[in-house]
Design goal:
binds nicotinamide-adenine-dinucleotide, 7-stranded mixed sheet, 47% helix, Rossmann fold, 14 helices, single chain, 412 residues, globular, 5-stranded mixed sheet, alpha/beta
Length: 412
């Protein structure tokens, strides 16, 4: 039977543990979440009824700094998924060296069927429910699937009503309300730096390289736009409503205007339709899953016709898919590195909030680039030390950093 999301993350972690000879004691310590919270969120709906939703926050590890991780609003949010995503955050923050631990949260709901007023009430209720366990030096949420700067603004406002002015309690806020310049684009920009470095190592470049992108939300659309600006050809993209394809590359700025007008990529003039399933196995240089988890699995990983899989999404490969890709020589650029640009600029936002000082967008982007390139060099060093995959190398670096912090702090 296929592993669930949390088991998959632990499967990848175990590989790293085995390689560096970590004992069983650490295995338990570093895999077990510190705290798992599940809350009931009753709110009045627009039609006069009461809606009852379930919210989650899993705080995985804080040995290196306050818990940090996004909030997802989706009908499939559950404990297993949030647990896996929280663990990934611990390794991601450690890998890129930002002074945070790992957490994740979410609400099981379908935001597409909810009004803005209902989403606001739900968000405020959630803040009240978890408010005692979060804070600028305790646990700092951020946007993820189906959450955005507006939701972060409500979050900040609700928390501040009880605790005083606290913009650093959440990142990914609107730029007009203590958000950071460059945060919106950060995850996609970080993905672009990640693949640029990999291509460079292999004697290639973004220019002329062919990309297929699943998901055209925050991560997918920024990645597509920034890569297109650098001469990359985006052959196909998709969203929850379907996919589109154009053999000589899509005009991404025009596609973004189409999405702003219609709400979806489908029926973009001059493109052909393609299903999400076919898109994942379309021939290209770089396949970029940037939507949801476990989209590459034992059934389709053997059919992937890309040289690289760039994990814009968290956990897009099952354990089986990851092994199949490795065996077939497809290079996987793992989530904990590929999409770490978001939490990196969240860190910059948090520091700006604590200092009440604003950085320029150029400064944010330069520091982000330095962080991504530095992390890439660290991963390559481990790859040559252990002759292992990029995923295992990324986990090794992250685990070493968390183990050191855990040891230094002691367990008393
Ligand atoms: P988003 O809500 O902005 O966009 C999600 C996109 O995926 C949308 O285009 C949606 O239509 C599409 N989608 C949803 N279901 C789909 C399906 N079944 N098939 C195809 N497309 C589908 O979310 P996002 O913030 O871009 O996050 C995407 C992924 O990136 C998630 O895995 C998230 O955890 C990860 N991530 C996000 C950030 C961030 O800063 N936002 C940071 C790191 C990782």
């Amino acid at each position: 039977m296929a592993m669930n999301a949390a088991e998959t993350t632990n499967y990848f972690l175990r590989r790293a543990f085995e390689l560096i000879g970590m004992g069983r004691r650490y295995e338990v310590l570093l895999m077990t979440p510190s705290r798992e919270l599940r809350v009931e969120l009753p709110i009045p709906m627009d039609d006069g009824s009461i809606g009852n939703f379930i919210g989650y926050r899993v705080q995985h590890d804080n040995s290196r700094g306050p818990f940090k991780g996004g909030l997802r609003y989706h009908h499939e949010v559950n404990t297993d998924e949030v647990r896996s995503l929280a663990s990934l955050m611990t390794w991601k923050t450690a890998l890129v060296g930002v002074p945070f631990g790992g957490a994740k949260g979410g609400i099981e709901c379908d935001p597409r069927t909810m009004s803005s007023g209902e989403l606001e009430r739900l968000t405020r209720r959630f803040v009240d429910a978890i408010g005692d366990l979060i804070g600028p030096h305790t646990d700092i949420p951020a946007p993820d699937v189906n959450t955005n700067a507006q939701i972060m603004a409500w979050f900040f406002d609700q928390y501040s009503r009880r605790h005083g002015f606290q913009p650093a309690v959440v990142t990914g806020k609107p730029v007009e309300l203590h958000g950071s310049l460059g945060r919106g684009a950060a995850t996609g920009r970080g993905c672009m730096f990640a693949i640029r470095e990999c291509l460079r190592t292999d004697g290639a470049s973004l220019e002329g390289a062919r990309f297929v992108v699943q998901g055209f939300g925050n991560v997918g659309s920024w990645f597509a736009r920034l890569t297109h600006e650098r001469g990359g050809k985006i052959l196909a993209v998709s969203d929850v409503s379907g996919g589109i394809f154009k053999g000589d590359g899509l005009d991404i700025p025009a596609l973004q205007r189409h999405v702003a007008e219609t709400g979806s990529v489908v029926e973009f003039p001059g493109s052909e339709p393609i299903s999400n399933a076919d898109l994942l196995t379309h021939e290209c240089d770089v396949l970029v899953p940037a939507a949801l988890g476990h989209v590459l699995n034992a059934e389709n990983a053997g059919e992937v016709r890309a040289k690289y899989v760039l994990e814009g999404a968290n956990g897009p490969c099952t354990a089986e898919a990851s092994d199949i890709l490795d065996q077939r020589g497809v290079v996987t650029i793992p989530d904990i590195f590929a999409n770490a640009g978001g939490v990196t600029v969240s860190y910059f936002e948090w520091t700006q909030n604590l200092q009440n000082f604003r950085w320029t967008e150029d400064k944010v982007n330069e520091e982000l680039e330095k962080t991504m390139v530095g992390a890439y060099r660290g991963i390559r060093e481990v790859m040559s030390r252990y002759k292992c995959s990029m995923r295992t190398a990324a986990f090794v670096r992250a685990v070493e950093a968390v183990k050191t912090a855990t040891d230094m702090r002691g367990l008393q």
